[in-house]
Design goal:
Helices cover 66% and strands 0% of the residues. The protein has ten helices and no strands. α2 crosses α3 and α3 crosses α4. It starts with a helix and ends in a 5-residue tail after the last helix.
Length: 169
């Protein structure tokens, strides 16, 4: 943690700026809370900042998430998102699977006003499609709450990934 606590603002934001998709402001707010006694405290702080954000701010974060299995856009994704989708084999969908993902993405955004968000780490495309089909039936309130939970799971996975790479210790 000593190394993290000694980082300059720019370096800190470079490392932690996309823990929450496209939301460097969370890293910036976290930076102001240094020094952290350990990894757990850093993690808790970042999650707390997100949870305390206003609903409209949370919606902005939801809107920054990419569509799942968008073949054209996977190559252009931010590093974390790209790796998560590749590990879930979303880049290897059949034509039929791509078509279904496209249809579901379109219907989902029309119904809820933001893209389908799922912490895909550890899941394969078949599981993801099954979850997608189920959640598209949720009420707006329930799905918003589920999307927020998924954003937190994604952030925790990303922080754990950095920790495993010895970046946080």
């Amino acid at each position: 943690m000593q190394i993290i606590n000694q980082l300059k603002r720019k370096e800190f934001i470079e490392i932690f700026g996309n823990i929450f998709e496209g939301s460097k402001w969370i890293a910036n707010q976290s930076y102001k809370k240094k020094p952290f006694k350990d990894y757990k405290e850093l993690k808790k702080e970042m999650i707390s900042i997100f949870k305390k954000a206003e609903k409209k701010t949370k919606i902005k974060i939801l809107l920054k998430h990419p569509d799942l299995a968008n073949k054209i856009k996977i190559k252009k994704l931010e590093k974390f998102s790209k790796n998560e989708q590749i590990m879930s084999e979303l880049h290897k969908c059949t034509k039929e699977e791509y078509f279904e993902f496209n249809e579901l993405n379109s219907k989902y955004k029309k119904k809820f006003g933001f893209p389908f968000i799922l912490a895909v780490a550890g899941k394969k495309k078949v599981q993801i499609l099954k979850i997608f089909r189920k959640r598209i039936l949720y009420s707006k309130r329930n799905e918003f709450n589920q999307a927020i939970k998924e954003v937190i799971k994604i952030a925790l996975f990303r922080l754990d990934h950095l920790n495993k790479k010895q970046i946080i210790k």
